[in-house]
Fold:
Amino acid sequence: MPRVKPKTKKAKQAKMEKVMGEYKAGTLHSGSKAGPMVKSRDQAIAIGMEQSGQAKPKKKAAKKPRKAAA
Structure:
């Protein structure tokens, strides 16, 4: 089941506090729990912003038109 992002500002702040608490405790992983430990504060902030829905939405690349065959 996919992770549900928080809707309210208070819930988003709580999610950021939880992620940064994991970082300070040294238990924050990048990716799954088997992934490497996060050592950078900037990376921890990026993970928290993504999980709380505060990160900018990812843009999809525009498709290039195909050339017509001669």
About this structure: The first helix runs from residue 9 to 25. Residues 1-25+34-56 form one domain.
